[in-house]
């Protein structure tokens, strides 16, 4: 029987299978969100890059708000970044996170090596001769025991569950503070915290775009973990009850683009005609998202996600680096280009804001069309043309910049309508 099986697989076929398995392991290792933490050299560069962002962000915020405690907070964050690298490197002995598809095995050269998990065809234990088994190869095997049910303690520790819930509650808190002019001044701190935690610490994964795709895939009959749906499903009632605050205050993808844009603050694609073209492009891309999901029934975006490359400083494919370069250049020239052209979540939440009774920005009859809000709105949800200011509610991310600049404070308000 064994000889027949060996004869059925040619050397060329065996070599092809080996290459596929090796390539799969390489992609798995490289795309892991904790890749930088497992490889000390990459972790060092990631830490240096993050520390540089902390320093530049602190200087920028201090120059804007002239508050000394910003420098203190920046110093604490810098120490935290350094500690995050030094702790696993020298104290925790490079312990690999449990949810990462990489295991630690001993190596005779340096005492440790990161290797991909063994698959069903290999064994981590010393293998015994296949002919030494006392049982017959024709004997029936017992049905493998089902994995134990997940306890509520395990669910409480799952970031796929507690993070979306925490974000939902935070959106609600911000919705109460957005009317306060002093509170609105610190929006950049929320964005900066999002970049550090959801971006660099969590590796931009899982994210709301993956959750949106999984929510659609489950409608097609594709089996996905229900925990991965919470990110998107909780943003929908969050947008209806509290407004599109996620996009303007907490989204790490939008925050990265916004910080890059503020470096030069170039005025590009600002007119009303440009916004109409952008909207048609966004809807067309949304349709392509749907078509791709129907045809492939896979989450292809995660394989080439430029944000994942940006926050992890690694990509399993060359395409990922190319898309990252395009994202960085376009973000410097255009305010939030990915959000305005490609993001399916932002478009969906914008449609939610059009539902009667949803919390949104409102421009009332006291507006004198003074252009103040038009100048302040980088998202181009408010555009002044032909001596009149037009509000596009679905495009507004409730950043609050227009409210702060409005001459008549009650002309622009956040309310349920």
Describe this structure as you would to a colleague.
By secondary structure, the protein is mainly alpha-helical. The protein has 21 helices and six strands. The strands form three sheets. It has a two-stranded antiparallel ribbon. Strands 3-6 form a two-stranded antiparallel ribbon. The termini are far apart.
Q: Domains counted in the coordinates: how many?
A: 3
Strand order of the largest sheet: 1-2
Structural class: mainly alpha
Q: What letter string, H or E per element, gives the SSE order?
A: HHHHHEEHHHHHHHHHHHHHHEHEEHE
Count the E strands.
6
Number of helices: 21
Residue ranges: pLDDT <50 for 5 or more in a row? 1-6, 19-42, 89-144
Biggest sheet statistics: 2 strands, antiparallel
Shape: globular
* Ends distance: 74 Å
Approximate strand percentage? 5-15%
Radius of gyration: 25 Å
Helical content, roughly?
Answer: 55-70%
How would you state the average pLDDT, rounded? 74
What's the arrangement of secondary structure elements?
Layout: H1 2-8, H2 11-31, H3 35-38, H4 40-65, H5 68-91, E1 103-105, E2 113-115, H6 152-156, H7 159-177, H8 181-184, H9 187-201, H10 208-219, H11 230-242, H12 245-250, H13 252-261, H14 272-296, H15 301-304, H16 306-312, H17 318-333, H18 337-341, H19 344-353, E3 359-363, H20 372-376, E4 382-385, E5 388-391, H21 401-405, E6 412-416
Antiparallel strand pairs: 1-2, 3-6, 4-5
